[in-house]
Write a structure and sequence with these properties.
The complex is a heterodimer of chains A (289) and B (190). Chain A is α/β, with parallel strands linked by helices. Chain A has an eight-stranded parallel beta sheet, sandwiched between helices. The longest helix of chain A has 18 residues. With 190 residues, chain B is an alpha/beta fold. Chain B is built from five helices and twelve strands. Chain B has a seven-stranded mixed beta sheet with strand order 2-1-3-4-12-11-10. In chain B, a hairpin with a 2-residue loop joins strand 11 and strand 12. The chains are: A alpha/beta (289), B alpha/beta (190). At the A-B interface, helix 1, helix 2 and helix 12 of A face helix 1 and helix 2 of B.
Amino acid sequence: MSEKYELNKNLAQMLKGGVIMDVSTPEQARIAEGAGACAVMALERIPADIRAAGGVSRMSDPKLIKEIQGAVSIPVMAKVRIGHFMEARILQAIEIDYIDESEVLSPTDEYHIDKREFAVPFVCGAKNLGEALRRIQEGASMIRTKGEAGTGDVVQAVRHMRQMMGEIRALTVKSKDELYDAAKQLAVPFALVEYVAENGRLPVVMFSAGGVATPADAALMMHLGAEGVFVGSGIFKSGDPQKRAAAIVQAVANYNDAKLLAEISENLGEAMVGINEHEIQVLMAERGI
Amino acid sequence: MKIGVLALQGAFAEHVQMLKSLGVEAVEIRQRRDFVPDMRGVILPGGESTVMGMLLHKLGLFEPLRKALVAGLPAFGTCAGLILMAKESEDSPRRHLCVLDVTLRRHGFGRQINSFKTEGEFAGCGQIPLVFIRGPYITGVGAGVEVLASAKNRIVAVRQKNLLGTAFHPELTPDSRVHEYFLNMCSGAG
Protein backbone atom coordinates (compact mmCIF):
# COMPACT_ATOMS: atom_id res chain seq x y z
CA MET A 1 0.00 0.00 0.00
CA SER A 2 1.19 3.51 -0.70
CA GLU A 3 2.50 5.84 1.96
CA LYS A 4 -0.33 8.27 1.22
CA TYR A 5 -2.91 5.57 1.92
CA GLU A 6 -1.24 4.80 5.25
CA LEU A 7 -1.33 8.50 6.20
CA ASN A 8 -5.01 8.63 5.24
CA LYS A 9 -5.80 5.61 7.39
CA ASN A 10 -3.81 7.32 10.17
CA LEU A 11 -6.09 10.38 10.09
CA ALA A 12 -9.08 8.09 10.71
CA GLN A 13 -7.19 6.69 13.72
CA MET A 14 -7.00 10.23 15.11
CA LEU A 15 -10.80 10.56 14.81
CA LYS A 16 -11.48 7.43 16.89
CA GLY A 17 -13.57 7.83 20.01
CA GLY A 18 -15.04 10.94 18.49
CA VAL A 19 -18.24 12.31 17.00
CA ILE A 20 -18.42 13.65 13.44
CA MET A 21 -21.30 16.08 13.04
CA ASP A 22 -23.26 17.24 9.97
CA VAL A 23 -23.29 21.03 9.65
CA SER A 24 -24.79 23.25 6.97
CA THR A 25 -23.47 26.71 7.96
CA PRO A 26 -20.18 28.09 9.37
CA GLU A 27 -22.12 29.02 12.51
CA GLN A 28 -23.28 25.40 12.99
CA ALA A 29 -19.68 24.29 12.40
CA ARG A 30 -18.48 26.54 15.22
CA ILE A 31 -21.21 25.22 17.52
CA ALA A 32 -20.22 21.64 16.66
CA GLU A 33 -16.52 22.33 17.28
CA GLY A 34 -17.29 24.04 20.59
CA ALA A 35 -19.42 21.07 21.64
CA GLY A 36 -16.53 18.66 20.96
CA ALA A 37 -16.99 17.36 17.41
CA CYS A 38 -13.77 15.65 16.21
CA ALA A 39 -14.67 16.62 12.61
CA VAL A 40 -17.57 18.16 10.74
CA MET A 41 -19.36 17.06 7.57
CA ALA A 42 -20.11 20.16 5.50
CA LEU A 43 -23.30 19.90 3.46
CA GLU A 44 -26.00 22.24 2.21
CA ARG A 45 -28.84 20.16 3.56
CA ILE A 46 -28.73 17.64 6.37
CA PRO A 47 -30.13 14.21 5.46
CA ALA A 48 -33.56 14.79 7.09
CA ASP A 49 -34.03 17.81 4.82
CA ILE A 50 -32.73 15.92 1.77
CA ARG A 51 -35.45 13.35 2.46
CA ALA A 52 -38.10 16.02 2.89
CA ALA A 53 -37.06 17.93 -0.25
CA GLY A 54 -36.74 14.95 -2.61
CA GLY A 55 -35.20 15.52 -6.04
CA VAL A 56 -31.56 15.02 -7.03
CA SER A 57 -29.11 15.61 -4.23
CA ARG A 58 -25.56 16.63 -5.19
CA MET A 59 -22.19 17.75 -3.81
CA SER A 60 -22.47 21.00 -1.83
CA ASP A 61 -21.38 24.41 -3.11
CA PRO A 62 -17.56 24.63 -2.73
CA LYS A 63 -18.00 28.17 -1.42
CA LEU A 64 -20.01 26.89 1.55
CA ILE A 65 -17.42 24.19 2.20
CA LYS A 66 -14.59 26.73 2.10
CA GLU A 67 -16.44 28.99 4.53
CA ILE A 68 -16.80 26.07 6.91
CA GLN A 69 -13.10 25.21 6.48
CA GLY A 70 -12.35 28.79 7.47
CA ALA A 71 -14.60 28.64 10.53
CA VAL A 72 -13.08 25.66 12.36
CA SER A 73 -9.70 24.03 13.00
CA ILE A 74 -10.97 20.42 13.16
CA PRO A 75 -11.01 18.29 9.97
CA VAL A 76 -13.72 19.13 7.43
CA MET A 77 -15.37 16.38 5.40
CA ALA A 78 -17.84 16.67 2.52
CA LYS A 79 -19.99 14.30 0.50
CA VAL A 80 -19.89 13.33 -3.16
CA ARG A 81 -22.36 11.18 -5.07
CA ILE A 82 -21.47 7.49 -5.43
CA GLY A 83 -19.30 7.15 -8.54
CA HIS A 84 -18.99 10.89 -9.18
CA PHE A 85 -15.21 11.21 -9.44
CA MET A 86 -15.43 14.75 -10.80
CA GLU A 87 -17.16 15.97 -7.66
CA ALA A 88 -14.37 14.21 -5.74
CA ARG A 89 -11.67 15.95 -7.79
CA ILE A 90 -13.31 19.27 -7.05
CA LEU A 91 -13.29 18.57 -3.32
CA GLN A 92 -9.66 17.48 -3.52
CA ALA A 93 -8.85 20.77 -5.27
CA ILE A 94 -10.14 22.71 -2.28
CA GLU A 95 -8.09 20.48 0.04
CA ILE A 96 -10.95 18.75 1.81
CA ASP A 97 -9.71 16.59 4.70
CA TYR A 98 -12.01 13.60 3.99
CA ILE A 99 -14.45 12.78 1.18
CA ASP A 100 -17.59 10.78 1.98
CA GLU A 101 -18.70 8.86 -1.10
CA SER A 102 -22.23 8.76 0.18
CA GLU A 103 -25.49 6.96 -0.45
CA VAL A 104 -27.22 9.96 1.13
CA LEU A 105 -26.75 11.83 -2.16
CA SER A 106 -28.25 10.60 -5.45
CA PRO A 107 -26.01 7.89 -6.98
CA THR A 108 -24.34 8.73 -10.30
CA ASP A 109 -22.92 5.42 -11.46
CA GLU A 110 -23.07 1.66 -11.01
CA TYR A 111 -19.33 1.87 -10.26
CA HIS A 112 -17.84 3.43 -7.17
CA ILE A 113 -15.00 5.93 -7.47
CA ASP A 114 -11.48 4.53 -7.91
CA LYS A 115 -10.35 6.08 -4.65
CA ARG A 116 -6.73 4.98 -5.04
CA GLU A 117 -6.34 7.71 -7.66
CA PHE A 118 -6.75 10.37 -4.98
CA ALA A 119 -4.37 11.94 -2.46
CA VAL A 120 -7.17 12.86 -0.02
CA PRO A 121 -8.89 10.13 2.00
CA PHE A 122 -12.35 8.62 1.50
CA VAL A 123 -14.90 7.24 3.92
CA CYS A 124 -17.62 4.99 2.50
CA GLY A 125 -20.82 3.45 3.84
CA ALA A 126 -21.39 -0.29 4.18
CA LYS A 127 -24.14 -2.42 5.64
CA ASN A 128 -22.21 -5.69 5.65
CA LEU A 129 -18.66 -7.02 5.46
CA GLY A 130 -18.68 -7.57 1.70
CA GLU A 131 -19.59 -3.95 0.99
CA ALA A 132 -16.96 -2.71 3.46
CA LEU A 133 -14.15 -4.80 1.97
CA ARG A 134 -15.10 -3.87 -1.61
CA ARG A 135 -14.91 -0.17 -0.67
CA ILE A 136 -11.55 -0.75 1.03
CA GLN A 137 -10.28 -2.55 -2.08
CA GLU A 138 -11.28 0.54 -4.09
CA GLY A 139 -9.20 2.69 -1.72
CA ALA A 140 -11.48 3.77 1.14
CA SER A 141 -9.41 4.48 4.25
CA MET A 142 -12.36 4.55 6.64
CA ILE A 143 -15.75 2.79 6.78
CA ARG A 144 -19.01 3.82 8.36
CA THR A 145 -21.91 1.45 8.74
CA LYS A 146 -24.78 2.96 6.77
CA GLY A 147 -27.78 2.92 9.04
CA GLU A 148 -30.52 5.02 7.51
CA ALA A 149 -29.62 8.68 7.35
CA GLY A 150 -32.12 11.38 8.24
CA THR A 151 -34.53 9.09 10.09
CA GLY A 152 -33.47 9.68 13.70
CA ASP A 153 -34.17 5.97 14.21
CA VAL A 154 -31.17 3.90 15.27
CA VAL A 155 -32.67 0.51 14.32
CA GLN A 156 -30.89 0.22 10.98
CA ALA A 157 -27.58 1.45 12.35
CA VAL A 158 -27.86 -1.38 14.89
CA ARG A 159 -28.81 -3.92 12.21
CA HIS A 160 -25.85 -3.02 9.99
CA MET A 161 -23.36 -2.96 12.86
CA ARG A 162 -24.58 -6.34 14.11
CA GLN A 163 -24.31 -7.74 10.59
CA MET A 164 -20.78 -6.36 10.16
CA MET A 165 -19.46 -7.51 13.54
CA GLY A 166 -21.18 -10.89 13.22
CA GLU A 167 -19.56 -11.52 9.84
CA ILE A 168 -16.17 -10.41 11.18
CA ARG A 169 -16.44 -12.74 14.18
CA ALA A 170 -17.49 -15.61 11.93
CA LEU A 171 -14.33 -15.20 9.83
CA THR A 172 -12.05 -15.40 12.88
CA VAL A 173 -13.04 -19.03 13.52
CA LYS A 174 -12.79 -20.28 9.95
CA SER A 175 -9.93 -22.49 8.78
CA LYS A 176 -7.77 -21.27 5.95
CA ASP A 177 -9.40 -23.43 3.30
CA GLU A 178 -12.78 -22.05 4.35
CA LEU A 179 -11.45 -18.49 4.01
CA TYR A 180 -10.84 -18.96 0.27
CA ASP A 181 -14.51 -19.73 -0.12
CA ALA A 182 -15.47 -16.80 2.13
CA ALA A 183 -13.54 -14.48 -0.21
CA LYS A 184 -15.52 -15.87 -3.12
CA GLN A 185 -18.85 -15.47 -1.31
CA LEU A 186 -18.01 -11.91 -0.23
CA ALA A 187 -16.71 -11.06 -3.73
CA VAL A 188 -13.52 -9.56 -2.31
CA PRO A 189 -9.77 -10.33 -2.55
CA PHE A 190 -8.46 -13.09 -0.32
CA ALA A 191 -5.84 -10.85 1.34
CA LEU A 192 -8.56 -8.65 2.87
CA VAL A 193 -10.49 -11.67 4.15
CA GLU A 194 -7.29 -13.09 5.63
CA TYR A 195 -6.58 -9.77 7.39
CA VAL A 196 -10.04 -9.67 8.95
CA ALA A 197 -9.81 -13.32 10.02
CA GLU A 198 -6.42 -12.81 11.68
CA ASN A 199 -7.16 -9.48 13.35
CA GLY A 200 -10.87 -9.71 14.10
CA ARG A 201 -11.45 -6.27 12.66
CA LEU A 202 -11.45 -4.29 9.42
CA PRO A 203 -8.07 -3.02 8.21
CA VAL A 204 -9.40 0.55 8.58
CA VAL A 205 -11.26 2.48 11.28
CA MET A 206 -15.03 1.85 11.39
CA PHE A 207 -17.60 4.37 12.62
CA SER A 208 -21.37 4.06 12.93
CA ALA A 209 -23.77 6.36 11.05
CA GLY A 210 -27.39 6.84 10.12
CA GLY A 211 -29.97 7.35 12.84
CA VAL A 212 -28.10 8.26 16.05
CA ALA A 213 -30.20 10.85 17.92
CA THR A 214 -29.41 10.49 21.63
CA PRO A 215 -26.40 9.90 23.91
CA ALA A 216 -27.83 6.45 24.61
CA ASP A 217 -27.94 5.68 20.87
CA ALA A 218 -24.28 6.72 20.53
CA ALA A 219 -23.21 4.62 23.53
CA LEU A 220 -25.16 1.66 22.14
CA MET A 221 -23.29 1.85 18.83
CA MET A 222 -19.93 2.03 20.65
CA HIS A 223 -20.85 -1.12 22.59
CA LEU A 224 -21.78 -2.93 19.40
CA GLY A 225 -18.35 -2.26 17.88
CA ALA A 226 -18.21 1.28 16.47
CA GLU A 227 -14.95 3.18 16.98
CA GLY A 228 -16.81 6.50 16.82
CA VAL A 229 -20.08 7.88 15.47
CA PHE A 230 -21.40 10.19 12.78
CA VAL A 231 -24.40 12.23 13.86
CA GLY A 232 -26.24 13.92 11.04
CA SER A 233 -29.72 15.28 11.47
CA GLY A 234 -29.88 14.23 15.13
CA ILE A 235 -28.14 17.36 16.40
CA PHE A 236 -29.38 20.33 14.39
CA LYS A 237 -32.92 18.91 14.15
CA SER A 238 -33.18 18.78 17.95
CA GLY A 239 -34.37 21.39 20.45
CA ASP A 240 -30.95 22.31 21.91
CA PRO A 241 -28.21 21.36 19.41
CA GLN A 242 -25.24 22.56 21.48
CA LYS A 243 -26.25 20.70 24.61
CA ARG A 244 -27.22 17.52 22.76
CA ALA A 245 -23.97 17.56 20.75
CA ALA A 246 -21.81 17.91 23.88
CA ALA A 247 -23.78 15.12 25.58
CA ILE A 248 -23.27 12.75 22.63
CA VAL A 249 -19.52 13.51 22.66
CA GLN A 250 -19.36 12.61 26.35
CA ALA A 251 -21.45 9.50 25.78
CA VAL A 252 -18.96 8.21 23.19
CA ALA A 253 -15.97 8.89 25.49
CA ASN A 254 -17.59 7.12 28.46
CA TYR A 255 -19.99 4.66 26.85
CA ASN A 256 -19.32 2.10 29.59
CA ASP A 257 -20.53 4.22 32.50
CA ALA A 258 -24.34 4.06 32.69
CA LYS A 259 -24.44 6.35 35.71
CA LEU A 260 -22.60 9.08 33.84
CA LEU A 261 -24.79 8.46 30.78
CA ALA A 262 -27.85 9.02 32.97
CA GLU A 263 -26.46 12.38 34.10
CA ILE A 264 -25.60 13.62 30.63
CA SER A 265 -28.93 12.43 29.19
CA GLU A 266 -30.86 14.70 31.55
CA ASN A 267 -32.73 17.70 30.31
CA LEU A 268 -31.49 17.73 26.70
CA GLY A 269 -34.69 19.17 25.28
CA GLU A 270 -36.56 17.61 22.41
CA ALA A 271 -34.88 14.96 20.25
CA MET A 272 -35.53 15.06 16.50
CA VAL A 273 -38.98 13.71 15.67
CA GLY A 274 -37.70 11.02 13.32
CA ILE A 275 -39.33 8.58 10.91
CA ASN A 276 -40.23 4.99 11.80
CA GLU A 277 -38.94 2.17 9.65
CA HIS A 278 -42.29 1.44 7.94
CA GLU A 279 -42.75 5.14 7.11
CA ILE A 280 -39.51 5.47 5.14
CA GLN A 281 -40.06 6.12 1.44
CA VAL A 282 -36.49 5.99 0.17
CA LEU A 283 -34.04 3.44 1.62
CA MET A 284 -30.70 5.17 1.09
CA ALA A 285 -28.78 2.18 2.46
CA GLU A 286 -29.75 0.15 -0.64
CA ARG A 287 -27.70 2.49 -2.82
CA GLY A 288 -24.14 1.47 -3.71
CA ILE A 289 -23.47 -2.14 -2.69
CA MET B 1 5.69 0.54 36.15
CA LYS B 2 2.19 1.92 35.51
CA ILE B 3 1.65 4.61 32.87
CA GLY B 4 -1.65 6.41 32.33
CA VAL B 5 -2.93 7.07 28.82
CA LEU B 6 -5.55 9.79 28.43
CA ALA B 7 -8.38 7.93 26.66
CA LEU B 8 -11.00 10.59 26.00
CA GLN B 9 -10.65 10.65 22.21
CA GLY B 10 -8.12 9.90 19.47
CA ALA B 11 -5.36 7.34 18.99
CA PHE B 12 -4.96 6.23 22.60
CA ALA B 13 -5.21 2.50 21.84
CA GLU B 14 -2.03 2.74 19.75
CA HIS B 15 -0.10 4.13 22.76
CA VAL B 16 -1.52 1.44 25.05
CA GLN B 17 -0.39 -1.18 22.53
CA MET B 18 3.11 0.31 22.33
CA LEU B 19 3.46 0.41 26.14
CA LYS B 20 2.29 -3.20 26.42
CA SER B 21 4.81 -4.29 23.81
CA LEU B 22 7.49 -2.70 26.02
CA GLY B 23 6.26 -4.66 29.04
CA VAL B 24 4.70 -1.67 30.79
CA GLU B 25 1.27 -1.58 32.40
CA ALA B 26 -0.95 0.93 30.60
CA VAL B 27 -4.06 2.35 32.25
CA GLU B 28 -6.73 4.21 30.29
CA ILE B 29 -7.82 7.49 31.88
CA ARG B 30 -11.45 8.16 30.92
CA GLN B 31 -12.60 9.87 34.12
CA ARG B 32 -11.32 11.59 37.25
CA ARG B 33 -11.38 8.33 39.20
CA ASP B 34 -9.04 6.63 36.70
CA PHE B 35 -6.31 9.21 37.36
CA VAL B 36 -4.63 7.52 40.32
CA PRO B 37 -1.51 8.63 42.20
CA ASP B 38 0.62 5.53 41.55
CA MET B 39 1.08 6.37 37.87
CA ARG B 40 4.71 7.06 36.98
CA GLY B 41 3.83 9.03 33.89
CA VAL B 42 0.99 9.99 31.59
CA ILE B 43 0.59 10.04 27.80
CA LEU B 44 -1.60 12.61 26.05
CA PRO B 45 -2.39 11.06 22.64
CA GLY B 46 -3.09 12.41 19.19
CA GLY B 47 -6.65 13.23 18.22
CA GLU B 48 -8.39 16.58 18.37
CA SER B 49 -7.18 18.94 21.09
CA THR B 50 -10.50 20.83 21.15
CA VAL B 51 -12.36 17.58 21.97
CA MET B 52 -9.93 16.49 24.64
CA GLY B 53 -9.76 20.01 26.12
CA MET B 54 -13.56 20.17 26.40
CA LEU B 55 -13.80 16.70 27.95
CA LEU B 56 -10.98 17.37 30.44
CA HIS B 57 -13.11 20.20 31.83
CA LYS B 58 -16.45 18.37 31.72
CA LEU B 59 -15.03 15.34 33.51
CA GLY B 60 -13.20 17.28 36.21
CA LEU B 61 -9.80 16.05 34.99
CA PHE B 62 -8.35 19.37 33.92
CA GLU B 63 -7.10 20.74 37.26
CA PRO B 64 -5.85 17.44 38.71
CA LEU B 65 -3.90 16.77 35.51
CA ARG B 66 -2.49 20.28 35.27
CA LYS B 67 -1.40 20.24 38.92
CA ALA B 68 0.27 16.85 38.52
CA LEU B 69 2.25 18.05 35.49
CA VAL B 70 3.32 21.23 37.29
CA ALA B 71 4.35 19.10 40.27
CA GLY B 72 6.65 17.04 38.04
CA LEU B 73 4.67 14.01 36.79
CA PRO B 74 6.36 12.93 33.53
CA ALA B 75 4.08 13.53 30.54
CA PHE B 76 4.40 12.72 26.83
CA GLY B 77 2.13 14.54 24.38
CA THR B 78 1.90 13.58 20.71
CA CYS B 79 0.40 16.06 18.22
CA ALA B 80 -2.90 17.07 19.91
CA GLY B 81 -1.28 16.07 23.22
CA LEU B 82 1.53 18.53 22.53
CA ILE B 83 -1.06 21.22 21.74
CA LEU B 84 -2.81 20.48 25.06
CA MET B 85 0.45 21.13 26.96
CA ALA B 86 1.65 24.20 25.00
CA LYS B 87 1.47 27.71 26.45
CA GLU B 88 0.90 29.57 23.18
CA SER B 89 -0.64 28.93 19.77
CA GLU B 90 -0.09 31.39 16.92
CA ASP B 91 -3.19 30.44 14.97
CA SER B 92 -5.76 29.85 17.72
CA PRO B 93 -7.02 31.67 20.80
CA ARG B 94 -7.63 28.33 22.55
CA ARG B 95 -5.38 27.51 25.50
CA HIS B 96 -5.39 24.31 27.48
CA LEU B 97 -2.98 23.09 30.18
CA CYS B 98 -0.35 25.81 29.48
CA VAL B 99 2.52 23.94 31.10
CA LEU B 100 5.05 23.62 28.26
CA ASP B 101 6.86 26.85 27.40
CA VAL B 102 6.52 26.72 23.61
CA THR B 103 4.63 28.58 20.91
CA LEU B 104 3.24 26.50 18.06
CA ARG B 105 1.15 26.63 14.90
CA ARG B 106 -1.62 24.08 15.33
CA HIS B 107 -1.91 23.12 11.68
CA GLY B 108 1.50 24.40 10.67
CA PHE B 109 2.01 21.63 8.11
CA GLY B 110 -1.41 22.16 6.52
CA ARG B 111 -4.49 20.06 5.86
CA GLN B 112 -4.65 16.29 5.36
CA ILE B 113 -3.42 16.49 1.76
CA ASN B 114 -0.12 17.81 3.20
CA SER B 115 0.28 15.06 5.82
CA PHE B 116 3.63 13.34 5.34
CA LYS B 117 6.14 10.80 6.58
CA THR B 118 9.87 11.33 6.80
CA GLU B 119 12.85 10.38 8.94
CA GLY B 120 14.90 12.45 11.34
CA GLU B 121 17.38 12.45 14.20
CA PHE B 122 15.72 12.27 17.63
CA ALA B 123 17.55 13.19 20.83
CA GLY B 124 20.67 11.19 20.08
CA CYS B 125 18.66 8.00 19.47
CA GLY B 126 19.49 8.01 15.76
CA GLN B 127 17.15 8.29 12.77
CA ILE B 128 13.52 7.56 13.56
CA PRO B 129 10.39 7.60 11.37
CA LEU B 130 8.39 10.82 11.71
CA VAL B 131 4.68 10.64 10.80
CA PHE B 132 2.78 13.93 10.64
CA ILE B 133 -1.05 13.94 10.42
CA ARG B 134 -2.34 17.50 10.00
CA GLY B 135 0.49 18.18 12.38
CA PRO B 136 1.60 21.28 14.28
CA TYR B 137 5.13 22.66 14.47
CA ILE B 138 6.85 24.71 17.12
CA THR B 139 7.81 28.28 16.31
CA GLY B 140 9.36 29.36 19.58
CA VAL B 141 10.74 27.79 22.77
CA GLY B 142 11.34 29.32 26.19
CA ALA B 143 14.50 29.03 28.28
CA GLY B 144 14.83 25.52 29.66
CA VAL B 145 13.22 23.88 26.65
CA GLU B 146 15.48 21.45 24.80
CA VAL B 147 14.89 20.82 21.09
CA LEU B 148 14.97 17.07 20.38
CA ALA B 149 14.04 16.85 16.69
CA SER B 150 13.36 18.92 13.58
CA ALA B 151 11.68 18.24 10.23
CA LYS B 152 11.42 20.50 7.19
CA ASN B 153 13.47 23.06 9.19
CA ARG B 154 10.80 23.21 11.89
CA ILE B 155 11.05 22.16 15.53
CA VAL B 156 8.93 19.03 16.01
CA ALA B 157 10.04 17.56 19.35
CA VAL B 158 10.93 19.23 22.65
CA ARG B 159 11.56 18.47 26.29
CA GLN B 160 11.16 20.71 29.30
CA LYS B 161 12.15 18.82 32.46
CA ASN B 162 9.30 16.27 32.98
CA LEU B 163 7.43 17.19 29.80
CA LEU B 164 8.06 15.60 26.39
CA GLY B 165 6.19 16.77 23.32
CA THR B 166 6.27 15.61 19.69
CA ALA B 167 4.37 17.01 16.72
CA PHE B 168 4.66 13.58 15.08
CA HIS B 169 3.20 10.18 15.97
CA PRO B 170 5.71 7.54 17.13
CA GLU B 171 2.73 5.35 18.17
CA LEU B 172 1.80 4.89 14.50
CA THR B 173 5.13 3.25 13.67
CA PRO B 174 6.75 0.03 14.90
CA ASP B 175 9.74 2.07 16.16
CA SER B 176 9.58 2.26 19.98
CA ARG B 177 12.59 4.49 20.70
CA VAL B 178 10.62 7.63 21.58
CA HIS B 179 8.44 5.65 24.00
CA GLU B 180 11.58 4.11 25.50
CA TYR B 181 13.03 7.63 25.91
CA PHE B 182 9.84 8.63 27.75
CA LEU B 183 9.89 5.52 29.95
CA ASN B 184 13.45 6.45 30.96
CA MET B 185 12.10 9.85 32.05
CA CYS B 186 9.40 8.07 34.07
CA SER B 187 11.82 5.74 35.82
CA GLY B 188 14.12 8.65 36.65
CA ALA B 189 16.88 7.30 34.42
CA GLY B 190 16.82 9.99 31.75
